[in-house]
Protein: Tripartite tricarboxylate transporter permease
Organism: Galactobacter caseinivorans
Amino acid sequence: MEALSMLAEGFGHAFTPMNLLFVLIGCLLGTAVGVMPGLGSSMAVALLLPMTFALEPSAAFIMFAGVYFGGLFGDSTMAILLNTPGQSSAIASTFEGHKMARSGRAPQALATAAIGAFIGGMISCMVVVFLAPALAAFSTSFGPAEYFALALFAFIATSSVVSDSALKGLTALLLGLGISTIGIDSVTGTERFSFGVPQLFDGVSLVTVTVAILALGEVFHIASRVRRDPTSRLLRPKGRPFLSRKEFREALPAWMRGTAIGLPFGVIPVGGADVPTFMAYGAEKALDKRRKDPQFGRGAIRGLAAPEAAGNATTGTAMGALLALGLPVSSTAAIMLAAFRQYGLQPGPLLFERAPDLVWGLLASFFLAMIMLLILNLPFAQVWAKLLLIPRPYLYGGIAMMCGLGVFATSSSAFELFLLLGVGLLGFAMRRFDVPLAPLLIGMVLGPLSETSLRDALLSSGGDYSVFVAGPISLAIYGLLIGAIALVVFGRIRNRRRGTVVEQGPKADVDA
C-alpha cells in the first residue's frame, strides 16, 4: 500500500502542465525516430542527452522515458509496413506482421502492435511499482563484492550470451572498458592511455561516445550503402485502425503469453528486448503447429501480438532494474544511466530516499506515456509512415549536424568534435563487421563501477580474493551466469548438429 500512496504522489508530480508536455514531446520524438529505418530509441536518447542539460532532472527523465517507450512503438510500424525494423527488438514482428500488411491487413497489424505494446508496457509498469522498492531494499545488502559480481554478470551476458559471436561481443566489451579507463586514475593519480593529450586527462565523455557510436556511426553506415540498398515500396495502411472482436479474442492470449515471457528479461542483463521477442514468437509458432488450421506463414495475428507484448514488457522492468540497482540491461538503459550521472545522481536504493519526487514522478510518467502512445499510434500510423518520404541525404545530413551541435554545446571544444568523428568511424567499422554495439556501451558505463568495486573489495579484505565468492549473493549471481552460459552453449551445439544433419541428409540420398 505504501507503493500505491507514493505512486499517487508521483502522479501529482507528473500531472503538472510542463511535465505532461515533456511526456508528449518524448513520445512524439521517440515514435518519429523509431519509424525511420536504422534508427531507434537508443539513438533518440543519445541525441537528446546533450540537449537536455538545461532542463530540471525530472523533466529530462520524463522525456527520456517517453522516447524509450515511443521508440519501441515506432520500430514496429516500419517492421510491419516496410519489413525494415528500426532496431533488432522489432525483427520478430516482421515475420508475420509484414505478411499481414501485404495481404491488405496493414491497419489490423498496426493495431495489434499498438495494443500489444500498450498491454505489455502497462503490466510491466504495474509490476515495477511494487518490484522497484523491493529491489532497492534488497540492494542495500550489496557490498563491493556483490556489485563486482553484478557488473561481471552484465559484461559476460551482454557480450557472449546475446551476441552471435562471443569473440565479437568480447571485443566490443574490451573496447568499452578500454575507453572507460582513459584519463587520470582517481585513486593513484596515474595517467592512463591519454598519450600525453591534456584534453584526455579528464577521460572521454560518455555523451560523445554514445552520440558517435549510435548516431554518427549509423549515418556513415547508411551513406556507405545508399547506392546498393534498393528502395522498397511502402505499404500504405488503409481501412479501420482497430480489431474486430474475433481478432481481439485471437490476439489476447498471445499478448498475455508474450507479456509473461518479457517481464523477467527486464531485470536480466541479456541485451534488452531482443531475446524475449524471439522466444515469444517461437512459443506461438510451436502452439500454432498443434492447431487444425495453422496460420503461421500467412500473416498470423498471434505471431505479431506475442513479440510486441514481450518487447514492451521488458521496458518497464528494465527501468525498475535501472532505478533500484543501477543496472542497465540494454544500450538505451546504459545511456539513461549516463544521464543520471550527468545530473549527479546515482540510481540505487539511496535514490529512492534522496529523490523520491523524481523516482515516483518518473514511474507515474510511464503510465501516462503508454496512454499517449496508444492514442498517437492507433489513428496516426499513416502520418508516421510519411516521414519516410524525407530524402535520405537531408535526413541523415540533419542527424549528423545535430550530433556535432549537441556535443559542441556540452563541451565547447573543437577536440571533442574530432573525437566525435573518430569514434563515429569506429561505430561504422563495428557495423561493417557485425560487432555488437551494446557491449561497448555497457562496458564503458559499468567499467568505473566494476573497477571501484574491485578495489574496495580487495582493500576491505586485505587483498584476499576469496572475498568475491564469500557471500551468498555473489555465489548466486555467479551460479546464474554459469547456468546461462551453459544453456546458450548447449543450444548452439544442438543447432550446429541439426545443421550438419540437414546438410549431410541430401548428400546421403545422392550417394545412395
In short: The first strand starts at residue 183 and ends at 184. Residues 296 and 383 are 29 Å apart (CA to CA). Confidence is low (pLDDT under 50) at residues 506-512.
